[in-house]
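Dissemination and training. As part of the outreach component of the grant, students in the summer workshop were shown how a complex can be specified as a set of sequence lines and then modelled as a single object. The example used during the hands-on session is reproduced here so that future cohorts can follow it. Participants entered these lines:
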Amino acid sequence: MNVQDFVQKALTHQKEPKEYEKGGKLLSKPSAGSSWTKVSCPCCFSERVEPLVLVKLGGKVGPETKRWLIKVIGAPQKDGGAALLAHPGEDASGDIIVVSAPRCTLLRAAEELGLCKTYRSGDMEAFSYNDRDNFKDSGVFLTLAERQYIVKYELDGLRVQRDLRIPGLPESRMLQKRDNIWQKLSSAGVVVDTFPLHNRKKLKDLGEAWYSGNQLAQPLDSVNDYFGSAVAFYFSFLDFYTWSLLTPAILGLAISYFSVAFFSSEVKKEMVDSVSGSKVIINDDDSGPMISGHMLQAMFSMIWSTVFMELWKRRSSSLSYRWGTMNLAERFAEPRPNFYGDLGVNPVTGRVEPLFPEWKRDLRMVLVSVPVVGLFLGLVVLGMMCFYWGEAQVKQLHKDWNSLLSQALLYIPSVLHIVYTNMLGNVYRNVAQSLTEYENHREESAFENHLTAKILVFTFFNNFAVLFHIAFFKQDVPLLRKRLASLLIVSQLVNQVTEVVIPFLVDRFISAPHRTESEDDPKEDKFRNQRTLPVFPGLFAEYIELLVQFGYLSLFSCVYPLTAVLLLINNITEIRSDAYKICNLFRKPFSPPVANMGVWQVAFEVLSFVSVISNCWLLLLSPRLQELCREGGLSSTNVLLLAVFGEHVLILIKFIMAALIPDEPDWIRKKRDQMEYTSMQALKEQVNAISTDFIV
Amino acid sequence: MNVQDFVQKALTHQKEPKEYEKGGKLLSKPSAGSSWTKVSCPCCFSERVEPLVLVKLGGKVGPETKRWLIKVIGAPQKDGGAALLAHPGEDASGDIIVVSAPRCTLLRAAEELGLCKTYRSGDMEAFSYNDRDNFKDSGVFLTLAERQYIVKYELDGLRVQRDLRIPGLPESRMLQKRDNIWQKLSSAGVVVDTFPLHNRKKLKDLGEAWYSGNQLAQPLDSVNDYFGSAVAFYFSFLDFYTWSLLTPAILGLAISYFSVAFFSSEVKKEMVDSVSGSKVIINDDDSGPMISGHMLQAMFSMIWSTVFMELWKRRSSSLSYRWGTMNLAERFAEPRPNFYGDLGVNPVTGRVEPLFPEWKRDLRMVLVSVPVVGLFLGLVVLGMMCFYWGEAQVKQLHKDWNSLLSQALLYIPSVLHIVYTNMLGNVYRNVAQSLTEYENHREESAFENHLTAKILVFTFFNNFAVLFHIAFFKQDVPLLRKRLASLLIVSQLVNQVTEVVIPFLVDRFISAPHRTESEDDPKEDKFRNQRTLPVFPGLFAEYIELLVQFGYLSLFSCVYPLTAVLLLINNITEIRSDAYKICNLFRKPFSPPVANMGVWQVAFEVLSFVSVISNCWLLLLSPRLQELCREGGLSSTNVLLLAVFGEHVLILIKFIMAALIPDEPDWIRKKRDQMEYTSMQALKEQVNAISTDFIV
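and obtained this result:
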């Protein structure tokens, strides 16, 4: 009692203005009833409480409901609370609750999540609450992103211990035992929003190190601190990918430069071919090099995409070690809030929680999800076919009529196709969400991965179907080249504009005037203002942009050697614009700790695999090779057989290369072994201790 | 001292004849100086000592050397001994030492090896010496194979603690610190042989349950008990594979039966084609079914080989759980005896041992092993080409001369080729051994796997090069069919004869007369007699036979539907003959605990992958399909394109199927999670205990 009073006092009486401004840690007006809830253990006493998360309540929520909610947030976990700290904002009737977390809750959750931290020995070790004193700087060592995620984790995990009526709400909103409180409150409109708060000072420092100057390297560790590992992995990958583009860019430039004379004549020839529609080669130019740039680029692409992915895997595992996410224990933690199932004892952890059999989920995936996704992919193909059919019809019509009306009609198929594709995309997104929800994944990451995979397959199909069609059915290299170049230039311009310029303008001239902040504003208003920012849309769009880029590069770049150069230029600006965007234009997102890029890693690997096939094929279409074959007197069937054989050999080489380059650097593997060995030893020692106890 | 004397007494004075005969556990004549060494801890006192391993000494080994060796074997591990029990045989000057192991040594080694045993709760848990009382039947629960392997493991691990001269050996044989004792003794001719002893009674029971009756199921658990998990995995796989052959066998019979009329006409037609050398089809028979047996079988083979491998993986992981080898800790144990490197502290376990950097090994593999293996594969191809060239030359010669001499000459290329292939094979085996030794693997299993992989690639190449040549270059289906049928029938007959009949005859009529045992023979002589049996040649030949079979079936069976039937008949006898062989015709082998089939698993998977490609190709060669295409007016290039497309889709389907069928059954995954969770918890608890200690 004494200690708690003391803490309470310390918390409420710290009010030198200097402190507020410097650290931004305390709320300003500690009037009656508006102070932090009490911490439940003496060790968590701290002079300054850092506001981490803002909970926005619905307009009609009465003060008794708010008081109850604050009590639940502040209650210890054994009483069914979240063991966090809550602050009611300016007064008890306001519509926000500011939430923070005491040290003990943070550390216990860090252990539960399986975060690794620097041990006394300098190595990363799985954090253990009981051993906290042996970890370096155990007081402040959780990053801001981790602290905020833990608050969300605890709030999401709140469950009712016995049937309960929430004060101020009608009878119909009764909570049943084991109901998820936060979910119920959200659906009842009591909680409208829960989002992490920006820390202006840290954000300013981060921005300066990240996108303000001319620096080449990104401050990835600080990004991880501030935005969490999911965002940091995206930027690390972007970084790694951009630097890796240097080699193909240089090669592309060299090919374009050295073979410009030969190349231009070749292109001219092809143009003539494609325009005339015939495939007769005018054999006037026989002085070209044995291996054309096309072939060189195709072979290089295959090797590059494999080596790039293998090296990234190594980099990724080093980063995961560095950021302490290599040993996440998500599958031992509580299931995600939306997970449902019959209550039972988890056979692994022994805790009572909803259980859902694996085979049921598999069945749902195979019998429901796969066919539905296949259906939508079929609809994409159908749309493409209708588009081609319509175009042919309209062209025919235009030929027959040749009027202004028929000229206008020419645009109709494209417009219809674009509308159709967009509608399909929107419907599909909702369907994918419902399907993944229906699959009922236990872990948040599994849910995310399955959802991403579904949308990914569709988007990929949407983006590449046309190019594949041109390359493999029409077999029209010049058209492919034209299409690729225009896609690269147009889509990148459009992306940059829609992603950065428009949000920036909106932010500056439309939203910002409503959000003018002055130094004198109470903290609460500053917090509330963050709600006017749009919600961060997630990294999906960013990743898919990279994936499509990578696809252009690894699948088709041999027909247009400047692809890598264009991408390199684009990405160097992309790094800065993405950084600016996430820092300034959106609310701070919650970011769970992750150990890698998840399903994106797989997507890139699949692409790098497909690139072997694609490049083999494009190599076969290479005009120079076809010429050589014709000269050598090989029949087209034999050439094709050779190509198939070559493709299989190349795929084999790719597999061998992927197997030979270890996925983890040697030192990471050793550390991992060491961790395993330590926990194995611990198991034995523990048993030893118990048996000694018995003897004693 | 008191306890040890008592144990000693108990060991030497137990001499009721009944006991000897019943358990076969005690040596017969405990004369002066010929008794078991003393156990070093009171808990290991046992009334009966079971002879496990026989060490055969060289003829010129003096009694003082033998005494020294017995002392080393019996000394506790802290004094540099093996903590085993040794018995000098009939007297101190005899040339054998019988070795056994006390309970404590066995249990500690079981923990070190990471064996799992049934815990009190009924689950398998990693065995822990300190927790031994909580494991079921902890007194006798190590299997015979495990006990014998542990004896070998301890003997192999003996290292000199300080420079030492072995009594009775010349100065030149001085042992330096950290020298491996057993290795040095073997090279000095002191130890000639170390092999595990058969247990006649257990062997008789096993044989009765295994191959004597008409039983369908094999007693796999008993096999694992007696021969160890490596042998048990082989027989389990053989079992699983044989039962899996039922489906393709039934299909093959059905195809042969229903389409016998159509088929025979087709075959006849093909014969005509191949004899006349032309590819003109006499279009007299158009009433065949749309899909021929050939096509059906090809498609079935692809699916079957995938499903079979996936299901076997699940079965394999269940077996590994059942036999307690799912959690082996080989990489934390001592390195294998031949491993060399600079002495240093192992960063994982903290023990002082030789260290050898990973990158050096990788470098050796890439720069030395891969090119050398490639060279030998090249020599195989060269041999094949020379053979074809020689055959053509000789045929030409015979045509020109047409004499008896030239008739005889016809056989020369084949004979030369066989001699060449055999010589190459022998040279290669030695080269592979040296290469793998040079790669310097730390773990025994890694060494075995790399050695097996090297020989495997070569043998596979040797076996299938000709068939692939016929199928893909000559494109001659009837020849392929003939070749396959003759290979299947001849090679199986030859195998059965060389593997079983000859050893059986040799054993019965040549070796056995020298080995007549009577009940009155002293135990020592019975032990010594086991040395007259040949050494068990390992499972390599058995596995390669299965692999080649599996290759015939999955790669080429569509051209000869009865393949599966022949293989099924062969394998049913193979199970019995292999069982008989390993029980009766050879010495008992040492068998380290293993968690799966190791590199063989990979080999079978690669084959099942190649089978997709091969079947696609053979499908394309199918006479019925070619006819259909010709009718449909498709050009051969287009057909080929379709086939390539189909192949890629099928490979995709195969990958998806392999990904969708989990490698482990659900319950195994749960158990594994549980074990991980327990050891994670233990790590925390241990730290907790330590911190509490500090507080106390």
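Residues 1-33, 271-288 of chain A have pLDDT under 50 and may be disordered. Students were then asked to discuss how this feature might be tested experimentally.
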